């Protein structure tokens, strides 16, 4: 049986980071950093964010999309995507507009998040019509939403047994090519819970890719300030000890059963983006604090871990 984990004020603080991220994304979208026709449903009003914040979110979204499309290009059949700690991410709808290669899309988060997201989807036709099957059947119950090819389910990622049940109930198959997304999620899990989850993923899906975006280099002075600021908001980083240099994150994934792994800080990722993309974004806003942007980008990393030869060459420059 799963261990029962008591609900804490820290969980509430972690949930609040979803609201912050969604508002930051809407601000950047409104300024033209990238296109997202759906973010306005999840963040109604936002204050303007600092240019370095907008640019940082652009690099995050652009890099994730780059690797998602690499993954889709390598699939010889319909794949499945599992979004851990999904928050109010709009990726499903954006992909729905551009590809039919995703056979099943599963999102997991705390019930407080999935209940609100389900409510927003149910209320807005533009969101709802894209998850309806030919019969238009969508089932919403106790914070979970199920349709043909899209599942939004409440789940505590710290309870592996619950994760297994929820994925099975959402029709996840070990045989399908599988992409797992974890953006600022693992760092909030105790190392034993994170490792159990990662081992389960690597052992269950023989053809898979895992994309992890989270803090890195937290051992220096700037990193210590980041940790203190999050702690002041009630967000203790239970996995802080694994957020050191990017290479250590890649090694961690190899030790947990993935066959290949590589990791880069976001400054490296930014420099690897096409020059025309960077030039377009840099023209959107004046950036006075270039040093602050460099520090921010040096304290977040993108890690790609894979199983199966078909995904082994996924890389920044692939």
Task: Give your account of this protein's structure.
With 318 residues, the chain is α/β, with parallel strands linked by helices. It has one domain: Vaccinia Virus protein VP39 (Rossmann fold, 3-Layer(aba) Sandwich). The protein has 12 helices and 9 strands. A 9-stranded mixed sheet has the order 3-4-5-2-1-6-7-9-8, sandwiched between helices. Helix 1 packs across helix 2 and helix 4 packs across helix 5. The longest helix has 24 residues. It is globular. The mean pLDDT is 92. Belongs to the methyltransferase superfamily. LCMT family.
What value does the average pLDDT take?
A: 92
Reading off the top of the CATH hierarchy, the class is best stated as Alpha Beta
- Quickly give the CATH architecture: 3-Layer(aba) Sandwich
The largest pleated sheet is described as: 9 strands, mixed
The named CATH superfamily: Vaccinia Virus protein VP39
Count of folded domains: 1
Over the alpha carbons, how many angstroms does the gyration radius reach?
19 Å
| Class from secondary-structure proportions | alpha/beta
Task: Fill in the CATH topology.
Answer: Rossmann fold
* Unreliable stretches covering 5 or more consecutive residues: none
Q: What's the tally of helices?
A: 12
Helix proportion: 40-55%
**Molecular shape:** globular
- % residues in beta strands: 15-25%
- Helix/strand order: HHEHEHHEEEHEHEHHEHHHE
- Count of extended strands: 9
Oligomeric description of these chains: single chain
């Amino acid at each position: 049986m799963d261990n029962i984990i008591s609900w804490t004020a820290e969980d509430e603080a972690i949930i609040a980071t979803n609201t912050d991220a969604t508002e930051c994304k809407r601000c950047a979208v409104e300024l033209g950093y990238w296109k997202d026709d759906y973010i306005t449903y999840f963040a109604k009003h936002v204050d303007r964010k600092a240019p370095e914040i907008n640019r940082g979110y652009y690099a995050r979204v652009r890099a994730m999309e780059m690797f998602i499309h690499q993954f889709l290009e390598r699939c010889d059949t319909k794949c499945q995507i599992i979004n851990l700690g999904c928050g109010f991410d709009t990726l499903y709808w954006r992909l729905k507009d551009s590809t039919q290669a995703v056979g099943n899309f599963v999102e997991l988060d705390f019930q407080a998040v999935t209940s609100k997201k389900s409510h927003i989807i149910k209320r807005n036709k533009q969101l709802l019509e894209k998850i309806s099957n030919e019969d238009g059947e969508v089932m919403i119950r106790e914070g979970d939403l199920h349709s043909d090819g899209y599942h939004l389910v409440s789940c505590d990622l710290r309870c592996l047994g619950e994760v297994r049940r929820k994925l099975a109930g959402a029709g996840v198959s070990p045989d399908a090519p599988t992409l797992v997304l974890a953006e600022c999620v693992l760092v909030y899990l105790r190392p034993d819970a994170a490792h159990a989850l990662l081992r389960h993923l690597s052992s269950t899906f023989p053809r898979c890719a895992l994309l992890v975006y989270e803090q890195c280099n937290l051992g220096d002075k700037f990193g210590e300030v980041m940790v203190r600021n999050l702690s002041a908001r009630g967000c203790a980083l239970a996995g802080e000890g694994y957020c050191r240099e990017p290479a250590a994150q890649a090694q961690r994934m190899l030790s947990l059963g993935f066959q290949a792994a590589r990791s880069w800080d976001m400054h490296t990722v930014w420099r690897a983006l096409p020059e025309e993309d960077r030039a377009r974004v840099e023209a959107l806003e004046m950036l006075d604090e270039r040093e602050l942007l460099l520090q921010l980008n040096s304290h977040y990393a993108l890690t790609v871990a894979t199983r199966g030869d078909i995904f082994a060459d996924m890389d920044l420059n692939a």
